[in-house]
Design brief:
This protein has four helices and seven strands. The protein is α/β, with parallel strands linked by helices. The chain has one domain: Nucleotidyltransferase, domain 5 (2-Layer Sandwich), CATH 3.30.420.10. A five-stranded mixed beta sheet has the order 3-2-1-4-5, sandwiched between helices. Helix 1 runs parallel beside helix 2. The model has no long low-confidence stretch (mean pLDDT 90).
Length: 181
């Protein structure tokens, strides 16, 4: 799993009925969002460029798990091949074969976007940046033994009382020990 990433798109409507496409690159080993970007008009060229931005120099993974969407055209496939990455395509209409990225998209919707009216691309980028910061640093995963994608130390009692701190505009909290001021 260390050498495997998943990619996928999901759509987000805005208040003005514009549809924004969010592209995600998820590292499977620790469920980290390696890269995301937003566009109104995804193309194979744009999507291929996103992979280059996600994996600069010689950091490309061995395997790339994706669906059979037509957005991953010949330009995209050539770029992936030139990066030295092997594409693994899931069966048609089988999102369960790419469970981690599908679960992440569901979590983004349930824990964040279902509670917000998105104004525009800039607003969506700010929301998702905050959510991914929370997701990486504080959101626990059962599959990671109740740890976060960015592992965190256990805080001993001597560090003080447990307090709640707001995340993602108050939609979520994380808890830390702090000494009384």
């Amino acid at each position: 799993m260390k050498d495997l990433v998943s990619i996928d798109f999901f759509v987000v409507p805005t208040i003005r009925n514009t549809v924004l496409f969010v592209f995600l690159v998820l590292a499977q080993d620790r469920r980290r969002v390696v890269h995301f970007n937003i566009t109104k008009h995804p193309t194979a060229e744009w999507t291929a460029q996103q992979l280059v931005e996600a994996f600069p120099y010689d950091t490309a993974p061995k395997y790339l798990l994706r669906d059979r969407d037509s957005i991953y055209g010949q330009v995209f496939q050539n770029r992936v091949k030139n990066m030295g990455t092997k594409e693994v395509k899931i069966a048609p209409r089988s999102p369960w074969q790419s469970p981690y990225v599908e679960r992440l998209i569901g979590s983004i919707r349930r824990e964040c976007l279902d509670h917000i009216i998105v104004l525009n691309e800039r607003h969506l980028r700010r929301i998702l940046t905050g959510y991914f910061d929370y997701y990486h640093r504080y959101r626990t995963h059962l599959s990671l033994d109740s740890d976060c994608p960015e592992s965190r130390p256990i805080q001993p009692e001597e560090m003080g009382k447990v307090i709640a701190l707001l995340e993602v505009g108050g939609f979520h909290h994380h808890y830390e020990r702090r000494k009384a001021a």
